[in-house]
């Protein structure tokens, strides 16, 4: 696996991008439609040529407009997985997966064996002899993942790979991708709209808007304290990292209870995710009902129309409460309070 | 009511009238031809030496033309559909010109290209190659008029298929030739087959360019349509019988292509 460095400008599309992904890291790319996310992927894949720019992958120069370098797509070792699986309709599943090895000169029988191995890696061996039209969306996307992996790419690019799947198929594909990206230290770019994808798959986040990278940072930074308007819309959530225990999540605040994702096993690293709107603020710790309490010090207050965002100092947690409640509690920076969240408002997801 | 829900929002009733008139206009002449044939003499008429020679020549030359159309038409369609050069729209109009050109004019144009004093014919002549008024001329004339049918049909198929599968194949490491052979062509196979069938049918029926450029020598350049035209003067019954034979051949081709369920547009 190799690091990706990209610097590219296309005047006609008003795009000027600068993106870096370290070797073995997964970068989530967020941004509104038409912001330039697909342009970024096409630039890296070599399907689009920049006016000026330089793209390197590992120690190879893929594009360098000054030196006149422009490696064609088939020699870039960059595989792309799109929203739709785009399996070749005239080939069986196994022939689709064997396509890449066959294209690079592997003999038929060996390519077939390799393809079977990759189908096994995505739990899809039973679909080997089916045609794409006989597969469901989730099954086809599994085969498409195997096909991309069989090319043994140095960089994997996923363009909203879950967005065309129905809600029941998405979690299984997400955990499959997690296994493939995280456990094998692959370098990857993942375009997504879903904070869950970011949490499960990515190390870092880049937000693209209007053809520019407007924000980069670690997953935690961007999801909890988004600086760009777009990231704030899809993120702005509270994240508490910890380790999955028998009855919830072990965190720096003590145990946190919530709805635990299927597939989370004790000992897994995970995060508790909840919205600031779900947080109530108390001066004294309440007792009784199944709630989670976090002892925090008020950091700053930010007026948001009729509500106020109360940020806790040093924790990244925030509560969004009414201005009246702020007045009743006489909140001010430095005050010691309890942030309280119902267990039903908290989702616990495996994290990267 | 047994009608399905979607038929409620269907066609206006009056549209069936002109549609029916058009349908009858196409089918009635075929029916009247079947009614006119002198069935007692039919076997004898279509198996005369001149007829069989004409039929064999027609099938041979139309097959050769179709092969040429595929060999050159597939790359032409690929360039027209995928190339981004600015001259492409102009080229497309020029290449498709034989569609709207009267075949006789095409024949004359070919004559002034490959004829004895033609643009290229002069040089061929120097090597002792004479193309005009030979079976080769028949094939060239048929290819000239049939090529646009294949190019047009295939270009449409290529545009409909889009480039997304090709992009995926390229990122999987396939060279452009591999992409073309293993992805592009299989995806447009129905379009290619229907284009080839159209081209074959057009070549089979070719008359004007052939008689102008290749003449009408029995066994050499006299194809079935030319034979029908000549017989009409001397033996109208034979002309009708041969016409029916040509119709049967055309129907057989279309049915064969449809039977394999890959004829696409046909």
Commentary on this structure:
The complex is a heterodimer of chains A (352) and B (266). Chain A is α+β, with helices and mostly antiparallel strands and 352 residues long. Chain A is 25% helix and 34% strand. In chain A, the strands form 4 sheets. A 6-stranded mixed sheet of chain A has the order 7-8-9-3-10-11, with helices on both faces. Chain A has a 6-stranded mixed sheet with strand order 14-13-12-16-22-15. In chain A, helix 6 (170-183) links the parallel strand 8 and strand 9. In chain A, helix 4 crosses helix 5 (137-150) and helix 5 runs parallel beside helix 6 (170-183). The longest helix of chain A has 14 residues, at 108-121. With 266 residues, chain B is an all-alpha fold. Chain B has a single domain (40-259), classed as MetI-like fold (Orthogonal Bundle). Chain B has helices spanning 16-36, 42-46, 49-82, 88-95, 103-114, 121-126, 135-161, 164-171, 176-187, 189-205, 208-213, 224-234, 236-259. In chain B, helix 5 packs across helix 7 and helix 8 runs antiparallel to helix 9. Classes of the chains: A alpha+beta (352), B mainly alpha (266). Chain A binds chain B through residues 45-47, 72-80, 82, 86, 88-90, 99-100, 102-104, 147-148, 150-151, and chain B through 164-165, 167-176, 178-179, 182-183, 186-187, 189.
């Amino acid at each position: 696996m190799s690091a990706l460095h990209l610097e590219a400008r296309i005047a006609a599309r008003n795009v000027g991008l600068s993106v870096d992904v370290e070797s073995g890291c997964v970068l989530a790319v967020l941004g509104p439609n038409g912001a330039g996310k697909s342009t970024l992927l096409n630039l890296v894949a070599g399907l689009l040529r920049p006016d000026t720019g330089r793209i390197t992958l590992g120690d190879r120069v893929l594009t360098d407009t000054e030196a006149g370098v422009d490696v064609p797509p088939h020699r870039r070792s960059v595989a792309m997985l799109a929203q739709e699986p785009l399996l070749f309709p005239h080939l069986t599943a196994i022939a689709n997966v064997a396509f890449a090895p066959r294209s690079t000169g592997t003999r038929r029988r060996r390519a077939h064996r390799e393809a079977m191995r990759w189908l096994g890696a995505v739990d899809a061996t039973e679909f080997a002899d089916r045609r794409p039209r006989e597969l469901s969306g989730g099954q086809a996307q599994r085969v498409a993942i195997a096909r991309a992996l069989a090319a043994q790419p140095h960089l994997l690019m996923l363009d909203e790979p879950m967005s065309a799947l129905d809600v029941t198929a998405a979690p299984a594909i997400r955990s499959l991708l997690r296994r493939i990206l995280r456990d094998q230290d692959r370098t990857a770019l993942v375009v997504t709209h879903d904070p869950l994808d970011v949490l499960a798959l990515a190390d870092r986040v880049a937000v693209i808007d209007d053809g520019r990278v407007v924000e980069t940072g670690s997953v935690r930074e961007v999801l909890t304290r988004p600086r760009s308007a777009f990231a704030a819309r899809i993120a702005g959530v509270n994240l508490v990292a910890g380790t999955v225990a028998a009855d919830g999540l072990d965190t720096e605040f003590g145990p946190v209870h919530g709805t635990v994702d299927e597939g989370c096993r004790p000992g897994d690293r995970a995060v508790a995710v909840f919205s600031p709107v779900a947080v109530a603020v108390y001066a004294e710790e309440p007792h009784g009902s199944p709630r989670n309490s976090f002892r925090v010090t008020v950091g700053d207050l930010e007026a948001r129309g009729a509500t106020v965002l109360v940020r806790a100092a040093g924790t990244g947690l925030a509560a969004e409460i009414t201005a009246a409640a702020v007045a009743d509690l006489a909140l001010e920076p430095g005050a010691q309070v309890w942030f309280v969240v119902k267990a039903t408002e908290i989702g616990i997801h495996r994290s990267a | 009511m047994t009608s399905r829900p979607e038929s409620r929002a269907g066609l206006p009733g009056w549209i069936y009238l002109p549609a029916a008139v058009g349908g009858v206009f196409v089918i009635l002449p075929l029916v009247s031809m079947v009614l006119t044939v002198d069935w007692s003499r039919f076997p004898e008429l279509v198996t005369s030496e001149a007829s069989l020679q004409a039929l064999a020549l027609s099938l041979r030359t139309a097959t050769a033309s179709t092969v040429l159309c595929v060999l050159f038409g597939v790359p032409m369609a690929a360039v027209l559909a995928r190339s981004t050069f600015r001259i492409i729209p102009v080229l497309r109009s020029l290449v498709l010109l034989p569609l709207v050109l009267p075949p006789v004019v095409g024949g004359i144009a070919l004559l002034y290209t490959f004829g004895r004093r033609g643009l290229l014919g002069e040089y061929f002549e120097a090597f002792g190659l004479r193309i005009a008024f030979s079976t080769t001329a028949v094939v060239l004339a048929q290819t000239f008029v049939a090529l646009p049918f294949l190019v047009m049909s295939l270009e449409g198929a290529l545009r409909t298929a889009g480039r997304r599968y090709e992009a995926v194949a390229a990122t999987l490491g396939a060279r452009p030739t591999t992409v073309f052979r293993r992805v592009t062509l299989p995806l447009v196979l129905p379009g290619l087959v229907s284009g080839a069938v159209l081209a074959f049918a057009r070549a089979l029926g070719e008359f004007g360019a052939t008689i102008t450029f290749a003449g009408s020598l029995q066994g050499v350049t006299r194809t079935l349509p030319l034979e029908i035209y000549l017989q009409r003067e001397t033996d109208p019954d034979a002309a009708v019988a041969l016409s029916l034979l040509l119709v049967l051949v055309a129907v057989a081709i279309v049915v064969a292509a449809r039977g394999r369920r890959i004829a696409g547009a046909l």
